[in-house]
Amino acid sequence: MAHRSRALLTALATLAAVTAAVPARASAATPVTVSFAATEDVFVSQAEPAKSFATATWLSVCGSGCGGASAGQRQALVRFKVAGIPQDAQDVKVTLNVVSARTTGTTVSVHPVTGSWTEAATTWNTRPAVGASAVASHTGFTAGATAKLDVSAAVEGDGTYAFALTGASDTTTVLMSSRESGDRGPRLSVTYTAGSGGEQTGGPLPFALPGTAALRASGRMVFAHYFTPYPVSLDNAAPENDYYARNYLKPDGEGGKHAAYGGLLRDRPPGRAPITGDYALADLKTEVKQAIAAGVDGFTVDILSVTSAHWTRVQNLIKAAEAVDPGFKIVLMPDTNGLASVDSATLAASIAKLAASKSAYRLADGRLVVAPFKAEGRTAAWWGEWMRTMETAYGIKVALVPTFLDFARNRDAFAPISYGFSNWGGRNPAANANLTANATAARALGKIWMQPVSVQDERPNQGIFDEAGNTENLRATWKGAIDGKADWVQLATWNDYSENTQFAPSRNAGWAYLDINAYYLTCYKLGCPKITNDVAYLTHRVQPVAAAPSYAQTKLMKLRGGSTAARDTVEVLSMLTAAGKVSVTIGGTTQTYDAPAGVSARTFPLKPGTASATVTRSSATVAKVVSPYTVTATPYVQDLHYRAASSDR
Q1: Which of 314, 422, 526, 598 has minimal Cβ neighbours within 10 Å of its Cβ?
Q2: 20 close to 36: Cβ distance less than 8 angstroms
């Protein structure tokens, strides 16, 4: 059920300065070595859990029995910022170099750090989450000598990387920190051979998506808004006759309650065959895996209820994240529309229950992130009192990041109690023409900013739609996040099919929107990647906007006031390794144009029939996409959802 009214151009995300000597690019046959000093390093002690060692000139690593204590473990944390590594680099080897202050026969292992931390604020009590599997280990340390640990598996090119050094021995391994006067602190050495520039990758994406560790280490977070009414399956039935097919996609579904607007939905999750066991949990694990594969850091889960099936799905989503990857974080998002009748004490008890999970997102200082949807549905005073209840009754400090429908009207009142701000945002290019102003306003109040990024918005049951302009709105909202240097991004939404805002793989778009999104997500986190694979995306509606349905539909969607003007277009979005010629056939008519290397978009008039696009270079076809969705001037029901197809899916 719809539950609320929600109001790129190529860009490089600026990387912070690094301590590195980057030599000029050598010939393809000459290995190049680049060295990066640690930007932050510190150790934490289980025996002194609240103590900061941020000024120490050494790093201690020791097992749980360190110093004869029953709980004396010590871990070291190091962070590096890597820049200047070519996208086509070959034979890459990455080595973590540490200098020992003592001679020991101990073993030190290196693990990726999956949680956030800062050198100054980190203690044992506030230490970040650490990956379970080691990527490297080294045994035997000599005073004054450098130990080399191969961490190539955890470094994917330019980006920010953090590691934890752990030990199992009761004997302490002591290493030099970056504060040691001899400049013998941890360093990351990257050796590679520059590529010829002509290499291409296979697979569905137009670029090499950095690994999960590299994306998470960037410090910028991308969450997708999860809406519990629309899981992968509602009844575990075969897709041709499941609840979606019988009741949501047909005008007469659910006893005809959706007949006036031609059925509740126009799209749905991809169908799957019935499965055995706990299918609901299995489906949520699938969605977590899909999000991780697309570079997403976590879900902001919309909490509509604390008692119903929606509540069960919230709990299961957290279980799914724990099982798949605890580094995939769940931001708790109480929805003031759905929770209008829930009192403060009940909400506090419910959120505290969810907060026990290691997948619930917390800041480096241990505060639980809570980002209420339509936060202005309760007063700032109400939320302040609720936060006090969370701390006094449950010992949980909250970092509040309210998501407003009206940011400008409510930001000042909420500023004293908030860690950051967000708004739900618009879903058309006109509404997203000047997005940096909100980020600037949030920072002026000392808050982080979570930028909404969206594809489109069409709501049959509410009788309203936004004109997304094919992928123009998606590109415009990412431009706002990149130009505004947003701290976090919220994809609105992962799966709200009633408002047709979904990024998730679906019947109408497959993975196309997630694939396009992955490119801009990488731009935002690490800088725009090199295009290494020719890919073309085709987007269009299956009817002209003004076409009348043949079904006796009495409630039709109308353009939202202030939206970009409605249009009937087919768009080719190309991501090419080099310039190419594009032939576009729409309704039997073919047109051609020259597309440049990199990212470009071109639109053409929508016509009844089929649509396709072919990219050629030197008479060879390098990409071809044929839309499986036929355009008609006489639709059965009004359907304004933009379809999408990729040449490589």
Answers
A1: 598
A2: yes
Residue 219, burial from CB neighbour count under 10 angstroms (0-12, 13-18, 19+):
middle
Taking alpha carbons only, the member of 402, 323, 386 closest to residue 352 is 386
With tokens 């109690």, the residue in question is 417
Asked if residue 141 lies in contact with residue 102, where contact means CB atoms within 8 angstroms, the answer is yes
SS3 at position 343: coil
Distance of alpha carbon 282 from the chain centroid: 21
Start-to-end CA distance of the chain, whole Å, equals 31
Give residues with Cβ within 8 angstroms of 66, minimum separation 6: 46, 47, 72, 73, 74, 170, 172
Question: Tokens standing for 354?
Answer: 């969810």
Does residue 493 have a cis peptide bond before it, meaning omega lies within 30 degrees of 0?
Answer: yes
Between 341 and 88, whose confidence is greater? 341
Q: Rounded distance, CA 141 to CA 101, Å?
A: 9
Beta strands in 390-534 (DSSP E): 398-400, 403-404, 420-423, 448-453, 458-459, 464-465, 488-491
Q: How far apart are CA 286 and CA 505, in angstroms?
A: 11
Which among 299, 287, 56, 32 is positioned nearest to 178, based on CA atoms?
A: 56
Strands (E) across 38-112 are located at 40-45, 58-61, 74-82, 90-99, 104-112
- The residue assigned the tokens 């009142």 is 413
Q: How far is CA 615 from the centre of its chain?
A: 30
The least confident of 1-10, 112-121, 352-361, 503-512 is 1-10
SS3 241: helix
> Which residue type occupies 469?
G
Mean of the pLDDT values across residues 18-27?
30
- Cα separation, 451 vs 464, whole angstroms: 23
| pTM attached to this predicted model | 0.73
pLDDT score recorded for residue 20 = 30
Residues ≥6 apart with Cβ < 8 Å to 584: 570, 572, 590, 591, 592, 593, 602, 604, 611, 612, 613
> What was the pLDDT predicted at 180?
85
- Under 8 Å between Cβ of 11 and 147: no
Cross-strand pairs, 491: 224, 453
- Spell out the alpha helix ranges (H) of 80-166: none
> Mean pLDDT lowest for which of 69-78, 476-485, 598-607?
69-78
At 629, is the pLDDT very low, low, confident or very high (cuts 50, 70, 90)? very high
**Cβ proximity of 541 and 631 under 8 Å:** yes
Q: What is the spatial distance between Cα 387 and Cα 369, in angstroms, rounded to a whole number?
A: 11
Per-residue pLDDT tens over the stretch 555-574:
999 999 999 999 999 999 99
